[in-house]
Write a structure and sequence with these properties.
With 400 residues, the protein is α/β, with parallel strands linked by helices. Helix content is 43%, strand content 14%.
Length: 400
């Protein structure tokens, strides 16, 4: 069977990068009553960001929500919180999540340009087209239908980049209008732009304008399907795009211990809150014309971690998790976005036990003789069989 992997040799392939979910929301990263040694308070988050930077994480993602939801009773605002974490660190990139319907794009563009100047160009933005209709309406925003929200997000990104790069920038779109804007200073380095979304509208938008495409947790086969299709959309537009994958990591000394922790998280789920969240997001997902919106096929246990992080399967020993990470890297994932039960201490442990093993495996692959199948070498042939078939389909485009 053809490897159906990215065209780069193992020696040329960039190392996989790691990000973590910033717990700027109360209640941790799972909707469970199992005790979590995690806090949404600023001091804890600053300590966590510094620990993540030291542990080998490249990015952190600050969550956006204005009306606390899915079990949380408190939430800090994403952009201000992100700036605080950037100012408290030296290398870490922080991704601030924003909704286009709450921001005039030229105002956010100015804020972002200033943040770049303050932080050595380490700000990134996650443009969230949104699903939480009640929050938007309660806060006075205009709510659009599913595909229109992605149109709005695309225009939003076009305005951001135009304001950052073009003198006397003007834009007349369906959702945003700008006339004769000059920014001084313009950012030396443009913030990287991330987006998520599973629908065709989301995937096509990513191919046209985004630097990164975030995927909810999924199996290798499910990830391969998105990588191939979104990579194809980007290629059609003469662009390249990178891929981030959500995951919830449970790493313990033995596989049995890790599985026991995962089972306990799910067994102690707050059923009412999970079901309320599930009903809301499934309604939003069904609003997509193709019925392929986010969470369209998520089960109860998937929704306990609200971006399907359990489905990625990073549960086991450091060796098992490192090999699973490499499996996703080999099918096109550039960044693994991680959630943890006890965020700070598990970020530190992941940096001690998993990241070094990932780097060893990457070096091992880079040293393989030409023509050696990296999947076979790592013993991942069975695990990646279905994913490789997806990537081998006519028209599939897999970015390096």
């Amino acid at each position: 069977m053809s490897s159906a992997l990215p065209d780069a040799t193992a020696a040329e392939r960039e190392p996989v990068e790691f990000a973590y979910w910033v717990p700027n929301v109360s209640g941790g990263l799972v909707v469970s009553n199992l005790p979590q040694r995690t806090s949404h308070e600023p001091a804890y988050n600053i300590e966590t960001a510094r620990a993540a930077e030291a542990a080998g994480f490249s990015y952190a993602l600050s969550q956006v929500r204005y009306a606390a939801s899915y079990g949380a009773d408190a939430q800090h605002e994403s952009t201000s919180f992100s700036l605080a974490l950037l100012l408290a660190t030296e290398k870490l990139k922080v991704i601030a999540a924003v909704h286009p319907y709450f921001w005039p794009p030229v105002v956010l563009a100015k804020w972002a340009a200033t943040a770049q100047a303050l932080t050595g160009n380490r700000l990134c933005l996650n443009v969230v087209s949104g699903w939480f209709k009640k929050e938007a309406l309660d806060l006075g925003a205009r709510w659009l239908e599913h595909d229109e929200r992605y149109e709005q997000s695309e225009e939003f990104i076009e305005v951001l980049r135009g304001a950052w790069t073009t003198d006397h920038f003007a834009f007349q779109g369906k959702h945003f209008q700008v006339g004769d804007v000059n920014f001084r200073p313009q950012p030396d380095v443009l913030p990287e732009v991330f987006q998520g979304g599973n629908s065709t509208a989301a995937r096509q938008m990513a191919g046209r304008v985004s630097d990164w495409y975030f995927m909810n947790g999924n199996t290798p086969e499910g990830v391969a399907e998105q990588v191939a299709q979104v990579g194809g959309y980007a290629a059609e537009n003469g662009r390249a795009i990178r891929f981030g994958l959500n995951a919830f990591a449970v790493v313990r000394d033995t596989e049995a211990e890790a599985v026991e922790v995962l089972d306990a998280i799910i067994a102690n789920a707050d059923a009412d809150k999970v079901n309320d969240f599930g009903n809301a997001v499934k309604e939003a997902g069904a609003a997509a014309k193709d019925g392929k919106g986010m969470w369209a096929d998520s089960e109860f246990k998937d929704l306990v971690q609200y971006n399907d992080g359990f489905r990625t399967g990073l549960v086991g020993t450091p060796e098992q998790v490192a090999r699973r990470v490499l499996a996703y890297r080999l099918i096109g994932v550039d960044l693994v976005l991680l959630g943890f039960l006890h965020v700070k201490e598990e970020v530190e442990a992941f940096g001690r036990t998993v990241i070094p093993r990932v780097r060893e495996l990457e070096a091992e692959l880079a040293a393989l003789p030409a023509g050696t199948d990296p999947v076979e070498h790592l013993g991942l042939t069975e695990e990646l069989a279905a994913a490789r078939e997806v990537l081998a389909r006519p028209g599939a485009v897999v970015p390096v």
